[in-house]
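Appendix B. One record, verbatim.
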Amino acid sequence: MKSKIMLCLLIQAAVTVINAQQPQNHNAWWFRSIDNLGLAAGQKNTALVMQTTGGFQHKSLFAGVGAGLDYYGFLSVPLFVDLRMYLSPNKNAFFIYEDGGVNIIWQKKSIENFTSGYHHNHGYYNDFGAGYKFHLKDRTSVILSGGYTYKRISESVSNQECPFAGPCYLQKDKYIYDLSRLIFKIGLEF
C-alpha cells in the first residue's frame, strides 16, 4: 500500500515537471498540482492532514484526483475527486471546492484479541469549503482554505459466546465512526 502511494506521488511530480517546461495556451486545459498541509479539528482532537491533487484547469474550473493522509481518529488514506471553481479570473482569487471519495483505513487487516476478531472497513470521505489564492510568480500560488470535512470508518467485531453449558455461537457487532471536523489548510498550487 505504501509503495503504491509513493509511486502515484512520484508520477504526479514527474508530470508536473514535464508540464512546467511547455508554453501554456490560456484558452486550453492545463495541468495543475495542488499540495496542502492542514489541521482537522473536531470533538475528538486536532490532527494533521496532508493532501496532494493533480488535475486540469480551464479558465475558472478545476477538476482533478487526489490522495492524502488523514491522522484524525484513525490513520487513513482518502482517495478523492477534487472540483473547484475560482470566483474571479484574476491571479489572486477566492475559490470554492468540493472533494468526495473513498476513505481507506491504513491498517485493514484483522486483529485477533483473545477470542475477538476486529476488522476495520473502508468508508466515505468528503471535504468542502472555500479559500483564497495568493499569486506568487509565474503559475505558482499559495492557497489558504477552510471548510468542513467528514470521514466514515466502520469496524466489525466478532466474539465467540458460550453461555453456561449451552451451545456456543458467534456474535457479530458493527461499529460505525462518523468523524466530522473543521479543516484549515495551507498549500501550494503550481
